[in-house]
Amino acid sequence: MRKLIAASAMLLAVGQVQAADECGKVTIADMNWSSATLIANVDKFILEHGYGCEAELVPGDTMPTGTSMIEKNEPDIAPEMWSNSMKDALDKGVAEKRLRYAGNSLSDGGEEGFWVPEYLVKKYPELATIEGVKKHAKLFTHPEDDTKSAFYGCPAGWNCQISAGNLFNAMNLADSGFEMIDPGSGAGLAGSIAKAFTREEAWFGYYWAPTAVLGKYKMVKVDFGTGVDKDEFVNCTSAEDCEDPKPTMYPPSVVQTVTIEDFAAKSPMAYDYVANRSFTNSQMNGLLAWMEDNQADGEVAAEHFLTEYEASWTAWVSPEVAAKVKAALQ
């Protein structure tokens, strides 16, 4: 009888562990930008083939997805949430145990700054600093007035136009002969970089990462010599009515994986995977450039990543899960 009771208890314990790790159906937000759709498709493949989940991609975007997760408990996973854009609501969802911040999907965070081409810094190393850029201002010829120097700002109507303009003023770039150019659009800004690289000309302006542009064109982020003053950035640099902006580097934007609490509780092993999964900006820049060059969608890009970057993703999972994913890729 004792043996029977012990055996029953053991079977019950095994059953409870299996139930706790049961993945079942998982919905993943497929956000409408390239890095997010890549991560979503990587998650879908690994969760399906490595953890036995019934994974489904659903359309998503930052605000609608975050709101739906808080109010409707779906989808289960938002793989790339730029959480600062709705931080208060997400924090409240976490406090109320509706959501969890699983981890950083971009380990470096979203990155902004003023940039110059790497080939130019190799020729003039001091261009890696803002003082060096000012010293060599005449290198950055204005396309419409060769008596002025060109700084390519953020397109009109974008939030970054405010911070770029305030920093332009804070560092007195106009006193060094610079004039801010509105590129008109994101495509116009990217095109100005592409044109400069084709001709190996000087270029100086605002850009952000991760992007295909910084994957294709090797740029150096200019050091303002200030470090990051987050309070200054939040309260003045990014404010339209900032009257006396001070120089500060851009603070990184937090980019996280967010899940609903039910998924984390129901599927702890699958949750551990999304908590461990993280890309560097350099890595993501290269992947985005590959996607653009090959006109690849998220599914094709995910297969490329899993095939060509094995050392990266196998570090996120157990050897047993890695073996299952590798078998599925073949």
TrEMBL record:
Q: Which SUPFAM superfamilies match?
A: Periplasmic binding protein-like II (SSF53850)
One function term, GO molecular function aspect: transmembrane transporter activity
Query: Which positions carry the signal peptide feature in this UniProt record?
Result: 1-19
Do the record's keywords include Signal? yes
Q: Which InterPro entries match?
A: ABC_Gly_betaine_transp_sub-bd
Q: Report the superkingdom from the record.
A: Bacteria
Q: Cite the ABC-type glycine betaine transport system substrate-binding domain residue spans from the record.
A: 25-308
Instruction: Please provide, in alphabetical order, the Gene Ontology terms of the cellular component aspect for this entry.
Output: ATP-binding cassette (ABC) transporter complex
Keywords recorded for this protein, A-Z: Signal
Entry protein name: Glycine betaine/proline transport system substrate-binding protein
Q: Which organism is it from?
A: Amphritea japonica ATCC BAA-1530
